Structure prediction request, 579 residues.
Amino acid sequence: MSAATRPQALQPAAATDPILVVRGLHKHFGGIKAANGVDLEVGRREIAGLIGPNGSGKSTLFSLVSGTVTPDKGEVRFDGRDIAGQSAYKVARLGLARTFQIPALFDNMTVTENLLAAAAEGHWAGARERAAETLALLRLEHVADNRASDLSGGQQKLLEFGRAVMRQAALILLDEVTAGVHPNIRKIILEAIAGLRERGVSFLIIEHDMEMVRNVCDRIIVMDSGRVVTSGRFEDIVRDSEVMQSYLGRPQ
Amino acid sequence: MKSRWLGLLLLGALLVVLVLLPLLVNNYWLRIATGALMWAGLACSWNMLGGYAGYINFGHSAFFGLGAYATALLMADPLGLPFTVTVLAGIAVTAACAVVIGAPTLRLRGAYFAIATWAFAEVLIQFATVMDFTGGIGGLSLPPFLNERFFYFAMLAAAVLTYLATWALFERSRFGLKVKALRDHEPAAEAMGINTALVKLQTFVLSAITASVFGAIFAYWVTFINPRSVFGGDITDQMVVMVLLGGLGTLWGPAIGGVALFVVNRLIWMYWGDTAFYIAILGAAIVLVVLFLPNGIAGLFARRRGGATVLDKTVEKLARAGGGDRN
Prediction:
């Protein structure tokens, strides 16, 4: 890939400032404060884990950052640009990819077509080769020509992840991408995440599985009631009984 | 690979037969063949948006009629413009109208677009009925050109072009991937960088101008049009049923459904001299297809194991409330 076609966010000249900065982000749905002043950062090449009880605003934060939902107020800086309130397709073109909690596949298209569609806007050169690579990486070659809706639950999760990979993004938001999948498939995804990080990709990961959070994430960000409660290394967070109480709903 | 060569061979044979058809049949059957080609092309044009993008257009006859009226008005005295010019004028007017209707309504999901297109066709019927320059309810006459072979080959060329364009754009290109992606999951398509509002509008304009070309040829062919004969809702109804019967969102479905239903229509007319029975058949066909054959006739040949259908996605878009905030 030539420098000209490379997404700006992947330019080697990139500084050491965080890839994602969120400041004072608010979103109310009626009386529900889904985001109530969220502040967080994701560093370059960092794998940050986002944890918190159900309804704490994690998925809403993903929708706000990726442009699927417009924030009421607040700042979202991606790779130095203010993207708050921008439409989802523009944010995606800047180099931010996301997965959906419930797999949002293109059901009537084949697995290969799903991957190609992810690359159809902006990353088309070499897309067929990269789709083949992604199929191999995720061990989906044998179902390449199957329709997405014919896949098993685990395979759907893999494909959901694979589309984000095809975006050649600088930052990938993963929403419970390993929830409920077979350990073999989880291993494939974890290896792929590690490989992408080696190539300079940053991650923000929503995850309920503490084993996975401990093994993969450099840093944990804890959310509750629409705000970030704390962040830090896994070991430090677990020692903090207040956080665990908030997360597990009972004292440790 | 083997089936691919067989398919190409069949397609080649079909083209040879179609080109030689005027030598093989009399003018009566040639007219029926001309009509079948027109309906196959119209169904295909409706399927571009309805099947590939999942947006139901309940007023597609509006664009067929715009093409017909543009040609009728411009070919008749005092202008007397050549047919090729009037076809292009019809395309221009149609494209402009499609942008005006589609730009605001295709941004919203839900039934807004379906209602807007339906209303647009109704407005055009009323407009053409009350205005003087459109000939009112009596309609317009065109300079007669009674050459059945010309119209047969004109419809054949338009139909072949329509299917070639559909194949190239929707089955074999990035553009087609974007269109099908937004049909199957709009927020996910946006998250892949696809400007869904723009892609929908482009598809809608393409679908509309294709219908207008068939409308232009139709007007010149039958030499007489009136508001109901080119804007009528039954024209749209037939396209919808043809596509559903043949296979929504498939390349060949509209051709299969279009030819099959048109031939049934003509046979009923031949034996009963009346097509009221045909309307009942349309109604029954739509119910049976939706219940038992959601992938249409073309779906019978596809290798698939249940799961979501294109019809599911299309109905989902109709039923869903506006806004893009849901996963």
In short: The longest helix of chain B spans residues 27-53. The interface with chain A takes residues 174-175, 177-178, 180-181, 183-185, 187-196, 249, 304-310, 312-313, 324-325, 327 of chain B (CB under 8 Å). Chain B has 15 helices and two strands.
